[in-house]
Design a protein that fits this description.
This protein is α+β, with helices and mostly antiparallel strands. Helix content is about 65%, strand content about 10%. The protein has 23 helices and 11 strands. Strands 9-8-7-10-6-11 form a 6-stranded antiparallel β-sheet, with helices on both faces. InterPro entries: MMPL_dom (IPR004869), Mycobact_MmpL (IPR050545), SSD (IPR000731). This is MMPL family transporter.
Length: about 725
């Protein structure tokens, strides 16, 4: 590490770093506009094939645009309303970008497109193209154009893509508002920790450098592959968090070196060689934790891996190159004002001593509390997201509240059964069999419509047949979809067909995405434990310490998942936070939180292990080194965790459920991890393990020596 050059050329390094930050900010601003929008879909799945064949053979698809039409007077069957509805359907079908459109009035008055009281009806449309095209090129003009009213009808525009376009816009606003609170709050908290404004400013500067640098790095990634817009949000959250963590660690270490009486250049150099090494290991651990998201074949989740790795690279450079240069210039202006604290006589040293004396009692009590907090996770139910991730004040949410209240089924969520080689004449018995599936209201096909196994009046039109192939529309009740949409899809797929079929539609796409995500959870868990084990073994030379760290991290994360279930699935605190519980949790956001929280928890573990290992290497006392090392590192971990938890808590004030989950879950996890886990369970387990904490079999010790990894200086 070129620490000597950084110290000798500190002024130039700072100037160049400021210029790089400004350039990165400009480049990063362009990155945000180049990021992609994504749908919850699984490439290569059965539902994806059904979607492609439905578009290719029949020129239609699952409706992603919906118009809710309300009659001003009378019902939707009155002549003036029918005329207006037909005209509206034709206008929507002719709108640029729309591929197909149909409505209650053009499909022979099918009951599933009409509300129970007869005052409302639906117009549905399919806009082909990916999420970027639909949500950026079509909907921004289409939605306001068709949200209108006259003397005959009132029209509200929505649809699945409009829902998630609104989610994107609301999340962006929430993030901006949160950052306006987070940055000054972090600066204030840093000043309270340091009691030096200069130290607080340079630490926050590392976070800003990390954010700008990561967005600039993502600009290069965007040129090669698709990256989700939510990647920029991860860059904001993690950039500030890691910048604060690493800045605190470096400055705390520099203060120790200055208290020893070392001149500033030598103190900075030793800080980089010791604390900088720990920061590097921490960065590798966090990056490894997030890189396991590459194991998912979904662009949405892979985007978080790109963003996470970019943030770590920028944060490590900021902490080990930019920050040391600034510290070399500031010198004693970052030292603690007044007399120095003696960490060994502080609260954490006393707590660690008590835990070491009675490890079973303290460790058992802390373990019981953690398990209690995590126990709600045993009742987790993974489900599919809908408009209720938005606040009730959002216009598209209000539209769907009306649909849920007035319609017993929603045809926009029909399951489509596509038979590319099927014969329309054979569709009748198959449609009858599908209509007998529990929760199915009606099945439309080229052979007619069926309900409960019997023919019913319905639109048996040419849209269900082509020169080659046929397809069927399976409409289920809203209650069935809310209860178990994925189960409905499985039941439909299990019905024997007279020809080869592909089952798609919005419920099937979400079910395939959910199944694809959850099926890889064991692999993700194995990979994240494996890669962090390797990194911690290289750092410590022990096989016990990494295994213990992984077990404690999983305990810490159980608290996060318990909170997600208790609050967001079961609805506790929903009134306070202002969201609508749906009884399930969408799986991809918790997986993201798992990787981020695991990396940050391991971040603190690295800091603690580094100090305890230093004490053990210096004294050879496996027991006394634990409270001594904790006394030197716990104040840092506590300060970093308090700032990070407060930062995450600010995101709980957002109006999108995904953002609230991130804020509540991460804030609670960081707080529990820094107190019960690192303050009690770590010393308890290390006391019980004794010298075995640092044990490794001979071949592994020789392998570690072969790669020339040395312990940090004392």
């Amino acid at each position: 590490m070129p620490d000597g050059i950084v110290v000798r050329r500190a002024g130039w390094v700072v100037v160049v770093s400021v210029l790089i930050t400004l350039i990165a900010g400009v480049v990063g601003a362009g990155t945000i506009g180049a990021l992609s929008l994504n749908r919850f879909e699984a490439p290569g799945s059965e539902s994806a094939r059904a979607r492609d064949d439905l578009a290719r053979l029949f020129g239609t698809g699952s409706p992603n645009v919906a118009l809710l039409v309300t009659a001003r007077r009378g019902t939707v069957d009155s002549d003036p309303v029918e005329a207006a509805g037909r005209a509206l359907t034709r206008e929507l079908a002719a709108y640029p970008g729309v591929g197909d459109a149909w409505s209650y009035w053009t499909r022979q008055g099918v009951a599933t497109l009409r509300s129970g009281d007869g005052r409302q009806a639906m117009v549905l449309a399919w806009v082909p193209g990916d999420a970027d095209r639909v949500r950026r090129a079509v909907l921004p003009a289409l939605t306001p154009h068709f949200t209108r009213g006259d003397a005959v009808i009132d029209v509200r525009a929505g649809g699945s893509d409009e829902v998630f376009r609104t989610v994107m816009e609301q999340a962006r606003q929430d993030f901006v508002q949160a950052e306006l609170v987070v940055l000054p709050m972090v600066l204030l908290l840093l000043w309270l920790v340091y009691r030096r404004l200069a130290a607080a400013l340079v630490t926050l500067g590392v976070g800003i450098f990390a954010v700008a640098g990561s967005l600039a790095l993502l600009r290069g990634v965007v040129l090669l592959t698709e990256v989700s817009t939510f990647a920029s949000n991860i860059a904001l959250v993690m950039g500030v968090g890691l910048g604060v963590d690493y800045g605190l660690f470096m400055i705390f270490r520099l203060r120790e070196e200055l208290r020893r009486g070392l001149p500033v250049p030598e103190a900075v150099t030793r800080t980089v060689r010791t604390a900088g090494r720990t920061v590097l290991f921490s960065g590798v651990t966090v990056a490894a934790s997030l890189s396991v998201l590459f194991a998912f074949p979904f662009p949405f989740l892979r985007s978080f891996a790109y963003a996470g790795v970019a943030v770590v690279v920028a944060a490590v450079i900021g902490a080990t190159v930019v920050l040391p240069a600034a510290l070399a210039l500031l010198g004693h202006r970052v030292a603690r004002a007044g007399s120095a604290r003696v960490e060994r006589r502080g609260f954490w040293h006393g707590l660690a001593l008590r835990v070491v004396r009675r490890p079973l009692a303290f460790g058992g009590a802390a373990l019981a509390v953690v398990l209690l907090l995590g126990s709600p996770f045993l009742g987790v139910r993974f489900g599919l997201p809908d408009d209720r991730v938005l606040p009730s004040s959002a216009p598209v949410r209000q539209m769907y509240d009306q649909i849920r209240a007035g319609f017993s089924q929603e045809e926009a969520d029909a399951v489509h059964v596509v038979a590319p080689e099927g014969n329309a004449a054979q569709a009748g018995p198959y449609a009858a069999a599908l209509s007998r599936v529990g929760g199915v209201v009606r099945v439309d096909s080229a052979a007619g419509s069926y309900a409960e196994g019997r023919p019913v009046p319905g639109p048996a039109d040419a849209r269900f047949a082509a020169a080659r192939g046929t397809w069927l529309s399976v409409v289920a009740s809203s209650d069935r979809l809310d209860a178990d949409a994925a189960g409905l899809v499985r039941r439909v797929r299990a019905v024997p067909a007279p020809f080869a079929v592909e089952v798609g539609g919005y419920p099937a796409e979400l079910a395939d995405y959910r199944d694809g995500v959850t099926a890889r959870l064991p692999l993700i868990g194995l990979l994240i434990v494996l890669v962090t084990f390797v990194v911690l073994f290289v750092m410590t030379g022990s096989v016990v310490a990494p295994l213990k760290a992984s077990a404690l991290n999983l305990l810490s994360l159980s608290v996060m998942f318990g909170a997600l279930v208790f609050v967001f699935q079961d609805g506790h605190l929903s009134g306070l936070l202002g969201f609508t519980p749906t009884g399930s949790i969408e799986p991809s956001i918790p997986i993201l939180m798992f990787c981020v929280a695991y990396g940050l928890s391991m971040d603190y573990e690295v800091f603690l292990l580094a100090r305890i290992k230093e004490e053990y290497d210096r004294t050879g006392d496996a027991v006394a080194s634990v409270p001594a090392g904790i006394a030197r590192s716990a104040p840092l971990v506590t300060a970093a965790a308090a700032i990070l938890a407060a930062s995450f808590a600010a995101y709980a004030t957002g109006r999108v459920v995904f953002l609230q989950q991130l804020g509540v879950g991460m804030a609670l996890t960081v707080a529990v991890d820094a107190t019960l886990i690192r303050g009690v369970l770590v010393p308890a387990l290390m006391r019980l393990a004794g010298p075995a904490n640092w044990w490794a079999p001979g071949p592994l010790r020789r392998l570690r020596r072969a790669v020339s990894v040395s312990d940090s200086e004392t």
